[in-house]
Write a structure and sequence with these properties.
The protein is mainly beta. The protein contains three helices and 31 strands. A six-stranded mixed beta sheet has the order 2-1-10-9-8-7. A five-stranded mixed beta sheet has the order 23-24-25-26-30. It has a four-stranded antiparallel beta sheet with strand order 3-4-5-6. A hairpin with a 5-residue loop joins strand 19 and strand 20. The longest helix has 11 residues. The radius of gyration is 22 Å and the shape is globular.
């Protein structure tokens, strides 16, 4: 059963203070969701959608639940560092605009700014404190937390809504099984379980929709971020199948992306383009989410690999892919932006040149050589330590990629959009040891 519990007497102000602890000095404050007083939620008790499993919502009050021992949330006072106690990293994730990232550790969580790189906040819990999932809501004070590690701070089957202005959890969502992932929008909370996905309204935590999926231990799910349109992508009920929910038009689209099971996918901010990779990890395919049309196929490599992360650039000219092979690849995309209704013309000529140079012109013997010789290969690459897990995003500076490792590594690299080849490393930090930078 999915159970909703309010755990504070008041919900956060919908307009966070300009001094919100997670705000970068370089950016304007983002609005947090217009969360209402918990009394409003009582009016919605039992009105959520009930699926085949009969998983209805229920409401109970526990106003003193899960307060932390050290309530001081002042950024500069909280940030302290001891070389004698380096935490174990359990989770890393970028925020929605890739300007920040969050790290869950075995004793709390930390928030970092990407450009310039700096730790802007941390919270360590006194007892246990393991955080296995931490999701930011742009740069505001609201976070979604799930326990993790050998001594989890919270149960693994609960999503805790944390307000750092109050230094406490202000709500929770409980489930029958472990939470695999959480995704946030300004107006929605998406919770991913092994075989179900729940969509909640952020304003009152009302259950709006639930979806059944094939076994999804990776917690695969992606959601668009534009206010005008809500697009959610998740695995379907069959191996290699993708399900796309277009909530604005109330359409559901299923299509087969791969013959093997899905391993990773990424969605553009507007929800119009989807990149998918299977457990084989050799090919990446780009689809139009409106009709499921395959627009492009690129090759990561010839050998099987585990794809960890993929990300589109802000204009969908580029796609970055990381895998267990220790290489981050950047592919040039040749999507017809006009047909998708987007203005992605800026820099398109560079992308087209790069795509042309990355594709092998072997059409005259295509029928003789193996298929991978005629595939579209990556424009640029960056070599990392093989075996460690990395996630990727495009930086806010032109032609840059930010790479985060589960070993605590932070890389910023730059690629040449025309000549391609090996990327140039611009910056490196171990974000678990901030003084180690070179």
């Amino acid at each position: 059963m999915a159970t909703l519990t309010a755990v504070s007497a008041s919900w956060p102000n919908p307009n966070p203070s300009p001094n919100s602890t997670f705000l970068s000095q370089q950016s304007q404050p983002e609005q947090s969701p217009a969360v209402q007083d918990p009394t409003a939620m009582r009016q919605h008790q039992g009105t959520g959608l009930s699926g085949d499993g009969g998983e209805d919502e229920s409401f109970s009050s526990s106003p003193n639940h899960h307060t932390v021992q050290s309530p001081n949330s002042n950024l500069r006072e909280v940030v302290s560092y001891s070389t004698s106690s380096i935490p174990s990293l359990l989770h890393i994730s970028f925020n929605q605009d890739h300007g920040c990232f969050a790290a869950g550790t075995d004793n709390g969580f930390r928030i970092y700014n990407c450009d310039p790189f700096r730790e802007i906040f941390r919270r360590d819990f006194d007892r246990g404190g393991g955080i296995g999932v931490v999701e930011m809501l742009f740069r505001c004070n609201i976070l979604a937390l799930v326990g993790g590690g050998p001594e989890p701070q919270y149960p693994l089957n609960k999503v805790m809504i944390w307000d750092d202005h109050q230094s406490r959890c202000i709500g929770e969502l409980s489930f029958r099984s472990e939470v695999r992932a959480v995704k946030l929008r300004r107006d929605r909370i998406i919770v991913v379980l092994e075989q179900k996905i729940f969509l909640y309204n952020f304003a009152d935590l009302k259950l709006l929709h639930q979806i059944e999926t094939i076994a999804n231990p990776r917690g695969l799910c992606a959601v668009s971020q534009l206010t005008a349109s809500l697009v959610l992508v998740c695995p379907g009920l069959q191996k290699g199948q993708v399900r796309v929910e277009h909530y604005a038009s109330r359409r559901t689209k299923f299509f087969a992306a791969h013959d093997s099971r899905l391993a990773c996918f990424a969605l553009t901010t507007d929800g119009q383009l989807l990149a998918t990779a299977s457990t084989k990890g050799t090919l990446v395919r780009i689809f139009n989410t409106s009709d499921g049309t395959r627009l492009q196929e690129v090759r990561r490599g010839a050998d099987r690999a585990e794809v960890y992360s993929m990300a589109f650039s802000s204009t969908a000219q580029w796609l970055a892919v990381s895998s267990d092979k220790g290489t981050v690849h950047v592919f040039g995309l040749k999507v017809n932006s006009g047909s998708l209704g987007n203005d992605k013309s800026h820099g398109a000529s560079d992308a087209n040149l790069a795509v042309a140079s990355s594709g092998l012109s072997l059409s005259f013997i295509k029928g003789v050589l193996p298929k991978y010789f005629s595939s579209e290969w990556s424009v640029a690459q960056f070599r990392l330590h093989e075996g460690s897990q990395y996630i990727v995003a495009f930086g806010h500076q032109k032609n840059t990629v930010v790479i985060l490792g589960m070993d605590g590594s932070f890389y910023r690299c730059q690629f040449d959009p025309v000549t391609g080849g090996e990327m140039t490393q611009l910056e490196y930090h171990n974000f678990l040891k901030p003084e180690e930078a070179f």
